[in-house]
Amino acid sequence: MKLLLDTHILLWAAAGTLPPSAAEYVIDESNSLYFSPASIWEIVIKRGLNRADFEADPHLLLSGLLENGYEQIPITAQHSLLTGTLPMLHKDPFDRIILAQSISEGISLLTADEIMAKYTAPVILV
Known about the structure:
Largest sheet: 5 strands, parallel
Mean pLDDT: 95
Helix content: 40-55%
Oligomer: single chain
Order of helices and strands: EHHEHHEHHEE
């Protein structure tokens, strides 16, 4: 299965604190794991704002993701346009673009965000 990991799942994976329900998907070698550059951007911004839940070094995170075989899904204009058609259930622009990437690319989004699971999209809530 193809899985796009949301930002918090990526942060938890990097810190070794994945909830067991998420870890089962991440460690399953039959799954292909993807990340969005929006997650790296979100970490850069929120780390710069001294948010305690965004302490990971984005350079190290990116290196670790690539070294561990995660694939990056580039953000396209199509993804950006799709965000405008999504219901305003979630107002966070980072989450909205990641969700749009998931929908557009036909990749399941792995998230712990209950609001994201309310969308009619391929979302796996852990």
